[in-house]
Specification:
By secondary structure, this protein is α/β, with parallel strands linked by helices. The protein has two domains: about 250 residues, Rossmann fold (3-Layer(aba) Sandwich); about 35 residues, no CATH class. It is about 40% helix and about 15% strand. It contains nine helices and nine strands. A seven-stranded parallel beta sheet has the order 3-2-1-4-5-6-7, with helices on both faces. Helix 1 crosses helix 8 and helix 4 runs parallel beside helix 5. The chain is elongated. The N and C termini lie far apart (about 60 Å). Bound molecules: nicotinamide-adenine-dinucleotide (NAD). The site of nicotinamide-adenine-dinucleotide has 29 residues, from helix 1 and helix 6.
Length: about 290
């Protein structure tokens, strides 16, 4: 089949829901053959039935896998090779919200569970995909779903944010180590994306919050992330490795919203001019017309 991923074989973990699911559809439309790896067997099987009815039956397989388990991850990679003969793209995307609550109240078990899924899962996916890609000798693309939560405090619970920050750094070290084997590694950092994990059954409420805070004026959707993953999976990004790509409608560009609140900037939208600092040369300003 022709397309931007023609002849490529991909694994998408967490592929039975949310942005992974959107990515699976997009990858198939562009000619890839795809293994959907997910812990949720019911969603995985229903999704494959749907894909069958859309005519993708020969190109998609579901494998029940827990990404934090090494045996499951090894078997998932093996399944891609047994079913489709090779592996070119590994999208480590499965995720959960993880531990939340005050630091003083978080249990070691909940902390470890969060890091097992979000960090060990990415490590194991990278490890077993890289082994397969190295033995093929034709390179590959590894994509890790991190989050903008990796970039600051106050964006998500601490365990989740810390785990996603670890994914960003692991992506860079993977790119360095695997580069000589022509294997690229990149991270996607989504902003607010309307998926079941994010909206928790209240899509309208969650959507409204992100309409207000994401400068682009809308909440993200799975397809936004699927397009970014497609680009990173395809040869169009063949010189991009070790990158962290924010796909957040400008959310992180907003920053702390200090401008407009600092002394002297309160009327920033009513005046224009130039501040010449403490040079002794006068600053200038003029009032804007309505
Ligand atoms: N939705 C957002 O706003 C947002 C923002 C930033 C980052 N993310 C990240 O995006 C990724 C995808 O999340 P989503 O929003 O599409 O959520 P989702 O809940 O819709 O999909 C996640 C999928 O991962 C699967 N999964 C969870 N734990 C697993 C495990 N141990 N092994 C295998 N599969 C497992 C789930 O069964 C589910 O199908 C996650 O890594 C999440 O942290 C989401």
């Amino acid at each position: 089949m022709a397309g931007r991923l023609a002849d490529k074989v991909a694994i998408v973990t967490g592929g039975a829901s949310g942005m992974g699911r959107s990515g699976v559809i997009r990858f198939l439309e562009e000619g890839a053959r795809v293994v959907v790896g997910d812990l949720n067997e019911e969603n995985g099987n229903t999704f494959i039935e749907e894909l069958n009815s859309k005519g993708f039956g020969n190109s998609a397989r579901f494998v029940r896998a827990d990404v934090s388990d090494e045996g499951d991850t090894r078997a998932m990679v093996q399944s891609a090779i047994e079913n489709f003969g090779r592996l070119d793209v590994m999208w480590n995307n499965a995720g959960i919200g993880g531990a939340f609550g005050p630091i003083t109240d978080v249990s070691v078990e909940d902390w470890d569970f969060t890091f097992a899924v979000l960090v060990r899962g990415v490590f194991l996916g990278t490890k077993h995909a890289a082994k397969a890609m190295i033995s093929q000798g034709t390179g590959g693309s590894i994509i890790n779903t991190a989050s903008v939560a990796a970039l600051g405090g106050g964006l998500a619970p601490h365990a989740y944010s810390g785990a996603k920050a670890a994914v960003v750094n692991f992506t860079m070290t993977s790119a360095v180590e695997l580069g000589p084997n022509k294997i690229r590694a990149n991270a996607i950092l989504p902003g607010g994306i309307l998926t079941p994990l994010m909206h928790q059954g209240k899509p309208e409420e969650a959507g409204k919050v992100f309409e207000e805070i994401q400068p682009i004026g809308r909440v993200g959707v799975g397809e936004d992330i699927a397009e970014a993953a497609l680009f990173l999976a395809s040869d169009e990004s063949s010189f991009i490795s070790g990158e962290s790509l924010k796909v957040d409608g400008g959310l992180m560009a907003v920053g702390a919203k200090l401008w407009g609140r600092l002394a002297g900037s309160e009327k920033a939208h009513e005046v224009a001019g130039v501040n010449r600092g403490t040079t002794g040369v006068r600053s200038e300003w003029r009032k804007l017309e309505d």
